[in-house]
Amino acid sequence: MSNNYQTTMRAIHVCSVGFALAFLISSALANDAYLFLNEIPIGGEGGWDILTIDSPANRLYLSHATKVVVVDLNKNAVAGEIADTPGVHAFVAV
User: Fold this and answer.
1) Backbone angles phi, psi at 29, to 5 degrees
2) 50 and 33 within one domain
3) pLDDT: which is higher, 47 or 58
4) 82 and 51 in one domain?
5) H or E stretch covering 19
6) Do 45 and 64 contact (CB within 8 A), yes or no?
7) 91, pLDDT greater than 80
8) Domain that holds residue 32
């Protein structure tokens, strides 16, 4: 094999190992950034879809089958529901 080919393959190998290490280190650091603070009972059956946070209003919107549940994050409680939204998958607070 040529010297150029070996140099290229060595560089690819070093870069691959470097990217793998960077990914593993960043993943390990990201796991330490999350803490469980409390649990807010939402209720309802089935799964939930996309969550949206409205930071200025301090509200969390959870889409769920035929409704959007609104959670007041200051009170850690359900503030209300936006009903009659069949097939809702997401909600954007404007």
Assistant:
1) -70, -35
2) no
3) 58
4) yes
5) helix 3-31
6) no
7) no
8) 1-37
